[in-house]
Amino acid sequence: MRVPSSLGFRPTFVLRSPLEEHALTESLEQHLGDRARAAGPHLLLSVPHADRRPWSPWLHVDVRPGDEPDGGSDLVCRFSPHPSVWTGVMLAELALLSTVFFAAFFAVGQHVADQPAWAWWIALGALIASVALWAGARLGQRLASDQMRSLLDEITALADPNHRA
Question: First vs last Cα of the chain: how many Å apart?
């Protein structure tokens, strides 16, 4: 399995495990130690502390009962940046897109009033900054691709003891 590539901020994939939900959660907590934070069937896995960078990924793992008749579990896994980075990116994106929206409405009002519509420049600048933020997130994903691969290989091996990397 390869690291998913998408235009989204948070690549997501699902793994199947022959282990039951409770046993799998305990096994993951035991093997991952202090690199994983657990809250019930949800785990948050990070790269080793010495290898962390601002673009380092975190892997959110939700362990759910499998829907196959032979039992097992499904792991819904989603990559994201550190939670504080994710919050900052989303707040910045919200602020920029709100600026685009309101500046565009203001520019339309200026145009209707036969005034110079200088607010279009504000909307354009905020839109360019929003695209730059998106491009920065994509660059961060590329910089973190080796760490994403490492986390994916690790969680795949732990989810299926019979898996050969």
Answer: 9
Are the beta carbons of 78 and 60 closer than 8 angstroms? yes
pLDDT digits (tens, 9 = 90+) for 89-126: 899 999 999 999 999 999 999 999 999 999 999 999 99
**Which H helix or E strand runs over 78?**
strand 73-80
- Which residues, given as ranges, of the chain have pLDDT below 70? 1-9, 161-165
Contacts 24+ apart (CB under 8 A), 43-51: 45/151, 45/154, 45/155, 46/82, 47/147, 47/150, 47/151, 51/147
CB 27 within 8 A of CB 19: yes
Around Cβ 27, how many Cβ atoms within 10 Å?
A: 15
Looking at residue 67, what DSSP letter applies?
-
List, in sequence order, every residue forming a beta bridge with 106; answer none if it has no partner.
Answer: none
The pLDDT assigned to 2 comes to 44
Partners of 77 in beta bridges: 13, 61
- Give the DSSP H or E segment for 13: strand 12-17
Which residues have CB under 8 Å from 5's CB, separation 6+?
Answer: 11
Distance CA 113, CA 131 (A): 30
